[in-house]
């Protein structure tokens, strides 16, 4: 999806074409923590999120980094019910490019009983189709477990759905945890043919590589 930005949009020069990036994955894999810490890594000090409720209502919420982590990152599944998006100026070799990042409602394998979550998931599918870059987060610490954040069929479905895009890659998150390294090798084999980058959203590891990937896709 391409959006023409007009002069009054914050941070973005008039007439720029805004690239869009969607962060997807199961609940609790670290999507929100990745977005917040990656934004900080790219030089953002205060996060200005556009929050879209599933009924289409939009509002702006501003958070300093620490506050965003406190309020938005959680062990509860489906903390993120609305779609949060943020425009970030990604620094390039020369100049910068504005990218709109979307944080999404986590995918589950079955049909969720709550209508809000189902709507969020279907909106996420639309975003995958419409945006230029897809960062698919997998929790390396939960690959072999049977938890809401474990690797499952839906991850392979997302990969099939998204890999036709030039800007698709898998972020193998929580590499800081003991199971991380071993499972990373497994993931690389399971998703042969896709780019898989090991990261720790918590400790900001692998972010240089993710930044290079984003820059090469915009
Ligand atoms: N050890 C570790 N924990 C992480 C990492 N990334 C996320 N978490 C934790 O995983 C949980 C879910 O994170 P969150 O960003 O809310 O996941 P989301 O549901 O995918 O948005 C939180 O308790 C985070 O602190 C990581 O790289 N390492
Ligand atoms: Mg979240």
UniProtKB/TrEMBL annotation:
Pfam families: MMR_HSR1. InterPro entries: GTP-bd, P-loop_NTPase. Residues 72-174 form the G domain. It comes from the Bacteria. GO terms for molecular function: GTP binding. This is GTPase ObgE. It comes from Thermovenabulum gondwanense.
């Amino acid at each position: 999806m391409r959006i023409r930005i007009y002069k009054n949009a914050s941070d973005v020069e008039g007439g720029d074409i805004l690239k869009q990036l969607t962060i997807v994955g199961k609940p609790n894999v670290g999507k929100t923590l990745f977005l917040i810490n990656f934004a900080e890594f790219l030089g953002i000090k205060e996060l200005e999120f556009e929050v879209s409720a599933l009924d289409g209502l939009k509002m702006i919420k501003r958070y300093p980094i620490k506050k965003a982590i406190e309020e938005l990152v959680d062990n509860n599944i489906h903390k993120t019910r609305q779609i949060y998006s943020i425009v970030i100026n990604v620094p390039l070799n020369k100049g910068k490019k504005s990218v709109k990042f979307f944080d999404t409602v986590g995918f589950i394998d079955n049909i969720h009983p709550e209508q809000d979550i189902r709507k969020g998931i279907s909106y996420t599918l639309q975003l995958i189709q419409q945006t230029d870059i897809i960062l698919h987060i997998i929790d390396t610490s939960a690959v072999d477990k049977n938890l809401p954040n474990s690797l499952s069929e839906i991850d392979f479905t997302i990969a099939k759905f998204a890999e036709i895009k030039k800007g698709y890659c898998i972020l193998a998150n929580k590499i800081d945890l003991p199971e991380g390294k071993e499972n990373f090798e497994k993931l690389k084999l399971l998703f042969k043919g896709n780019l898989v980058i090991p990261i720790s959203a918590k400790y900001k590891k692998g972010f240089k590589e993710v930044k290079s990937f984003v820059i090469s896709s915009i």
